[in-house]
């Protein structure tokens, strides 16, 4: 670890204790304080056999303590690592809490990771115990983790039995903890008393968009400070209800869970991604945390439904969307809304906006988004429709929130102002640098990598390019490592151009390529449902995705769409070639991270032949 990083760690370990005076010093204390203050009969809620079941605050504490003692009975001691691989469920939160109650370091693992990636994390973290969703999940990754010498036991969240003596159920682990509590009633308190705010609470592995994953060491102070500071400008209360959708293995949802618990909210776990629309209607949350792609999909679905209902309905929908954007733009500028626009907005609200709000259950107070850039258009549409979207910015290394729009300060096109006690500065090359109690202790087993991301005076280098406006709002331009240079020496930031391309109703996904090429080009996954409606309207006989991707009329449509949504690009930024792809980029295929960020290196390699062909054909067409 560099001297600057060591100094940062030292500050985080000392001054933050004073800074957090009056607040829970550890995550275990956060759970205990919440249960004591709110004592909810339905703190955690999950669906089983078609019915929603509840776990009271008191039971959350009892089970968390039993898990901690159960882990201790299996030989785990302070600082030992326990990995968690499961979809969101109460057991995930209880396993996390159990580790925090015992002083153990948990290691979240995404359910979508390939077996080899899981093995890397287990080996690098030297995990001793592995919480895992069920036997099917274990069987899937068993060939990859066979021979992993550090793992001593597996704990299944399911109630399945196994002849392998290393495998026990969570219920059995809790029973062992309960038995130990009976024999040593003071042990639980002793374990909690041995935890310092500066101790590592969790080891979260980055998604590795630009190389080998790194284990981010986050302390109790890192997570507690971010929980408190990121929610400071919100009026969260026990009246709020949250639906947990994003993976808890990501620090965004994880810190969000701590915010929910600290605020006394009732938490409902979505059954699955496919079930989210149904769960939204059932739960009717007041708080919803999601990545931008979720909101894009909701809008795309609403627009497609309008198109399929006929030309008149499509025109009404488009009119309402224009009204929403105009209304939000004027409102955001702090200007009075003209009477005529107010009247139009009332009509649009009755026939369109209310249905959009109903999709989320009809009671939403705030949508909070991060993990990737939210387009200005989506922000204006949802805001104008009465759905408040608060966009923030952060990284795993910053626990995660650095800045956030909030109910008292929102500005379109920005990720808000830095949250309390977090400082942001812009380096000479435009890179965003951060300092605060939320910044990680460093990368596990990687002192050189840690050294590289801290400046000599102790600021964390985010790798993102941005700017602060005159009022202190932060705007993200692009990832520093994602900037590419054309063969003519011009640097291009791909993300803003990709956002422009995705604003076309015919584009589902877009990735810009062109490093060391003469000009930028795009790989585009069409919105095939929209194309089917277009083909029907134009009486085109196209029956397959393959035909859509090669039909001259469709290619001409996309060429015109690209020109229409990118009119203000500089000549060297203009997309001069494109290829349509049949299959969406996905997490499962390794093209996206679990938070839906593009793995550009993977896409460059996987679609090398497509990219080369695209440039060859473009060169032949050029005079």
Structure description:
This protein has 623 residues and is an alpha/beta fold. Among the domains are: 27-195 and 233-289, Rossmann fold, CATH 3.40.50; 483-621, ANL, C-terminal domain (GMP Synthetase, Chain A, domain 3, 2-Layer Sandwich). Helices cover 43% and strands 19% of the residues. It is built from 22 helices and 26 strands. It has a nine-stranded mixed sheet, sandwiched between helices. Strand 5 (129-132), helix 6 (135-145) and strand 6 (153-156) form a beta-alpha-beta unit. The N and C termini lie far apart (55 Å). Residues 1-19 have low confidence and may be disordered.
* Overall pLDDT metric: 92
Q: What's the helical proportion of residues? A: 40-55%
Large-scale geometry: globular
- Please indicate the percent range of residues in DSSP E strands (runs of 2 or more): 15-25%
User: What's the CATH topology name of the domain at 27-195 and 233-289?
Assistant: Rossmann fold
Q: How far apart are the termini?
A: 55 Å
CATH class of the domain at 27-195 and 233-289: Alpha Beta
Question: Given the helix and strand composition, which structural class is it?
Answer: alpha/beta
Strand order of the largest sheet: 2-1-11-10-12-13-14-15-16
Number of H- or I-type helical stretches: 22
What is the oligomeric state here? Answer: single chain
């Amino acid at each position: 670890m560099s001297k600057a990083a060591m100094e940062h760690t030292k500050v985080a370990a000392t001054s933050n204790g004073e800074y957090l005076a009056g607040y829970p010093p550890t995550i275990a204390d956060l759970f205990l304080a919440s249960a004591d203050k709110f004592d909810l009969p339905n703190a955690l809620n999950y669906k089983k056999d078609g019915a929603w079941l509840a776990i009271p605050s008191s039971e959350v504490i009892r089970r968390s303590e039993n898990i901690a003692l159960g882990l201790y009975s299996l030989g785990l001691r302070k600082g030992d690592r326990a990995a968690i691989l499961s979809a969101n469920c109460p057991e995930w939160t209880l396993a996390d809490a159990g580790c925090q109650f015992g002083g153990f370091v948990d290691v979240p693992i995404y359910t979508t990771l390939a077996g080899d990636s899981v093995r890397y994390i287990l080996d690098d973290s030297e995990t001793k115990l592995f919480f895992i969703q069920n036997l099917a999940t274990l069987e899937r990754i068993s060939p990859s983790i066979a021979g992993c010498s550090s793992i001593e036991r597996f704990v299944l969240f399911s109630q399945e039995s196994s002849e392998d003596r290393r495998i026990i159920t969570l219920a059995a682990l809790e029973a062992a903890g309960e038995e130990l509590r009976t024999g040593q009633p003071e042990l639980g308190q002793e374990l909690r008393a041995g935890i310092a705010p500066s101790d590592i609470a969790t080891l979260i592995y980055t998604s590795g968009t630009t190389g080998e994953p790194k284990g981010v060491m986050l302390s109790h102070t890192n997570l507690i400070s971010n929980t408190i500071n990121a929610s400071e400008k919100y009026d969260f209360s026990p009246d709020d209800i949250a639906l947990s959708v994003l993976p808890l293995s990501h620090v965004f949802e994880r810190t969000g869970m701590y915010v929910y618990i600290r605020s006394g909210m009732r938490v409902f776990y979505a059954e699955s991604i496919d079930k989210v629309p149904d769960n939204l209607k059932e739960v009717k949350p007041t708080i919803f945390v999601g990545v931008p792609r979720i909101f894009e999909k909701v809008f795309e679905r609403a627009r497609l439904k309008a198109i399929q209902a006929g030309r008149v309905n499509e025109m009404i929908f488009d009119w309402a969307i224009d009204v929403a954007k105009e209304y939000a733009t004027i409102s955001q500028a702090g200007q009075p809304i003209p009477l005529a626009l107010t009247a139009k907005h009332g009509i649009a609200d009755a026939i369109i906006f209310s249905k959009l709000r109903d999709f989320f259950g009809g009671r939403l107070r705030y949508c909070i988004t991060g993990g990737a850039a939210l387009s200005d258009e989506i922000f204006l549409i949802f805001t104008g429709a009465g759905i408040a979207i608060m966009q923030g910015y952060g990284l795993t290394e910053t626990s995660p929130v650095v800045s956030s729009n909030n109910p008292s300060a929102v500005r379109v096109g920005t990720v808000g102002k830095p949250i309390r006690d977090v400082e942001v500065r812009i380096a000479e090359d435009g890179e965003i640098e951060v300092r605060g109690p939320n910044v990680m202790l460093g990368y596990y087993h990687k002192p050189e990598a840690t050294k590289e991301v801290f400046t000599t005076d102790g600021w964390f280098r985010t790798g993102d390019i941005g700017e602060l406006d005159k009022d202190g709002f932060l705007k993200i331009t692009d990832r520093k490592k994602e900037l590419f240079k054309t063969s003519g020496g011009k640097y291009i930031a791909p993300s803003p151009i990709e956002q422009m391309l995705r604003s076309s109703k015919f584009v589902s996904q877009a990735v810009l390529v062109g490093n060391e090429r003469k000009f930028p080009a795009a790989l585009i996954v069409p919105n095939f449902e929209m194309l089917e409606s277009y083909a029907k309207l134009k009486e085109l006989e196209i029956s397959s995705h393959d035909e859509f991707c090669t039909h001259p009329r469709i290619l001409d449509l996309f060429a015109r769409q690209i020109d229409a949504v990118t009119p203000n690009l500089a000549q060297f930024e203009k997309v001069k070639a494109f290829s349509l792809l049949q299959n969406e980029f996905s997490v499962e295929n390794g093209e996206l991270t679990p938070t839906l960020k593009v793995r550009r290196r993977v896409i460059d390699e996987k679609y090398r032949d497509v990219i080369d062909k695209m440039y060859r054909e473009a060169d032949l067409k050029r005079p």
